[in-house]
């Protein structure tokens, strides 16, 4: 997988692929997401806000999680979040953001 620094173009590319009725689910870890975020604009806005809130040394690594495309967000050598993306082949239908440390440990690939 590629590891790259987050930047503005990542967010724009990401937003272009969002379905109009995309749903973002959070697991309540870290920045608690009380209820799912729905709709392209709201989800894109949320993703941009979270990306901006990450420390400067944060990196994204594209991986496959449970057979679906995903992103691991790392700050230094610590995993900060995992993002699972569900698509219909053309657009992103739903996003699952996992920030709970116990769940992250279970997802983390063994070194």
Describe this structure in words.
The structure is a single chain. With 111 residues, the protein is α+β, with helices and mostly antiparallel strands. 27% of the residues lie in helices and 41% in strands. It has a 7-stranded mixed sheet with strand order 1-4-5-6-7-2-3. Strand 5 and strand 6 form a beta hairpin. The two termini are 15 Å apart. The model is unreliable at 5-9 (pLDDT under 50).
Distance between the termini: 15 Å
- The SSE order reads EHEEHEEEEH
Gyration radius (Cα, Å) is 13 Å
Structural class: alpha+beta
Shape: globular
Mean pLDDT, rounded to whole units?
79
TL;DR?
With 111 residues, the chain is an alpha+beta fold.
What structural keywords apply?
single chain, 111 residues, alpha+beta, seven-stranded mixed sheet, 3 helices, globular
Topology record:
Layout: E1 3-4, H1 8-16, E2 18-26, E3 37-38, H2 40-53, E4 58-65, E5 68-75, E6 78-87, E7 92-98, H3 101-107
Parallel strand pairs: 2-7
Antiparallel strand pairs: 1-4, 2-3, 4-5, 5-6, 6-7
Helix pairs in contact: 1-2
């Amino acid at each position: 997988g590629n590891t790259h620094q987050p930047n503005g173009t990542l967010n724009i590319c990401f937003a272009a692929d969002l379905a109009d009725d995309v749903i973002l689910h959070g697991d309540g870890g870290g920045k608690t997401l009380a209820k799912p975020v729905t709709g392209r604009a709201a989800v894109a806005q949320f993703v941009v806000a979270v990306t901006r809130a990450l420390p400067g040394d944060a990196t994204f690594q594209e991986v496959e999680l449970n057979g679906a495309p995903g992103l691991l967000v790392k700050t230094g050598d610590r995993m900060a979040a995992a993002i699972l993306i569900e698509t219909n082949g053309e657009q992103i239908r739903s996003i699952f953001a996992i920030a709970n440390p116990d769940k992250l440990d279970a997802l983390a690939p063994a070194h």
